[in-house]
Amino acid sequence: MLEIPCPWCGRRNESEFVCAGEADRKRPIDPEAETEAAWTDYLYNSANPKGLVREWWWHVNGCTLWFQIDRDTVTHEIKPVEVSPK
Q: φ and ψ at 36, to 5 degrees?
């Protein structure tokens, strides 16, 4: 089980959080202009690289705030936390 370092609550069990995926993914500016295949690709596929990945996490069962962490997908080592703008 991972311990996620929430910037407001400290280290907590990962069961308190929801991972929203890669933070570097950009939503299309005009989704209606996208082809169905391109939109499907955006919604359902991610890069899923090995190594360090920046991720969005939501502390759903705690302070309910969003933040980013850098997590190594191989070792699960977590790097410093970034606080999201309110």
A: -60, -40
At 11, which CATH number?
3.30.2270.10
How many domains does the structure of the chain reveal?
1
In this structure, are strands 66-72 and 10-13 parallel, antiparallel, or unpaired? unpaired
**Cα-flanking dihedrals φ and ψ of residue 84, to 5°?**
-75, 150
Give the amino acid at 57. Answer: W
Predicted pLDDT of residue 28:
85
The two tokens of residue 72 are: 């190594």
Question: Is the pLDDT at 59 greater than 60, yes or no?
Answer: yes
Give the model confidence (pLDDT) of 33-57 as tens digits. Answer: 999 998 888 889 888 889 999 999 9
Cβ atoms of residues 10 and 48 within 8 Å: no
User: Which structural domain, as residue segments, surrounds residue 19?
Assistant: 3-83
Q: What's the CA gap between 32 and 47, in Å, rounded?
A: 23
Query: Model-level pTM greater than 0.70?
Result: yes
